[in-house]
Amino acid sequence: MRTKTDLRNLTQEELVHYVESLGQPAFRGRQIMAWLYRPGIT
Asked: How many Cβ atoms sit within 10 Å of the Cβ of residue 14?
């Protein structure tokens, strides 16, 4: 079982590699990064 990963502590490159390790396409990491740092998101 995987431990929880705080996505806010990852760089964009690290996040892309992380989601790829979960079997997701690379663009998904960029989407998550954009969502995390979108104005108005807390």
From this structure: 14
